[in-house]
Amino acid sequence: MAEAPTPAPRAPEATGEESRGAVLAAMAANLAIACGKLVAGALTGSAAMFAEAGHSVADTVNQVFLLLGINLSQTKADKAHPHGHGKEAFFWSFLAAIFIFVAGAAFSFFEGTRTLIQEEAHERSSFDLTVAFGVLGMAFLFESFSFTVAMRSLMSGARRRGWSVIRYIRQSPDLTTKTVVFEDSAALTGLLLVAGGLALSEAAESEVWDGIASICIGFVLAAVSLMLGMQARRLLLGAAASEEVREALHRVVMSFPEVTHIVRLLSMQLGSHSVLVTGELELSRDLHTREIEDLIARIDEKIARDVPDVTDTFWELRRRPLSS
């Protein structure tokens, strides 16, 4: 005979201060870099430099998206959203991925293609080139700082889960930090491409290399956008918790002798640090109602201690059949 499902609210989702710090560092860096690149682009007429300026503007806007996601994901649960707003972070990260493609990759492709078609020569003075490479050097320092902050946050998250960095990048639900890492990686790669394209264009006295560099930046941004978009899609569609969380849940539940069998155990990632669990448990037949209530309370308490990412549990119960 089935018992009514039993909800068990848990501790609120983690504050995400590490992610917030990474986002704020990236925002400050990208805003300063965007201004410098626009000035350098106007002086040199470099398509690759303009492409990188567009990339930095897009990244700055994306940091606003990510901050919104962090803040909104911490909104308390209500009647309209009984399981909280954790997926806000996934949604805003998905928008960031789209914006990287629209405002970054598409603009880079346009600038590169325009330069290759027009084949318009640009006369650059020594002062113009000094400013351009000086801006690229400063941008590299700023981006390296932002990348270091983001990587520290990412590595800290990987250590907490006992994962390798590669696995954390592939499977972690913390899209905010990963978005910053991906953006900064793309930015550092883009800066090298701009420097190479500008140097080759000057050496060959042809803007073809500058246009090729801009198109290459577009491909880098498109790849980053696709990776982030696919990860956000998986989480928005209701991805299960990690294998470790599912195994830990199974161990905790089966550690109680009153539970004879787990009929099913389902999980869904609600946020970066919150998981919803629903399950159907088969219990011993000799348990009374009060004993069953006490058992569920003890299961939930142990889950809260051993699997802190689980924030909500709903159990459906049934007694062990007489034939068993």
Q: What report would you give on this structure?
A:
This protein has 324 residues and is an alpha+beta fold. It has two domains: 17-236, Up-down Bundle (Alpha-lytic protease prodomain-like), CATH 1.20.1510; 241-319, Cation efflux protein, cytoplasmic domain (Alpha-Beta Plaits, 2-Layer Sandwich), CATH 3.30.70.1350. Helices cover 67% and strands 12% of the residues. The protein has nine helices and four strands, in the order βααααααααββαβ. The protein has a four-stranded mixed beta sheet. Helix 1 runs antiparallel to helix 2 and helix 3 packs antiparallel against helix 7. The protein starts with a strand and ends in a 5-residue tail after the last strand. 43% of the residues are buried.
How much of the residues is beta strand, in percent? 5-15%
Number of domains: 2
The strand order across the widest sheet is 1-4-3-2
Low-confidence stretches: 1-15
Structural class: alpha+beta
Please, what is the oligomeric state? single chain
Name the CATH superfamily classification of the largest domain. Answer: Cation efflux protein transmembrane domain
Strand count: 4
Number of helices: 9
Task: Describe this structure in a few short sentences.
67% of the residues lie in helices and 12% in strands. The chain has 324 residues and is an alpha+beta fold. The protein folds into two domains: 17-236, Alpha-lytic protease prodomain-like, CATH 1.20.1510; 241-319, Alpha-Beta Plaits (2-Layer Sandwich), CATH 3.30.70.
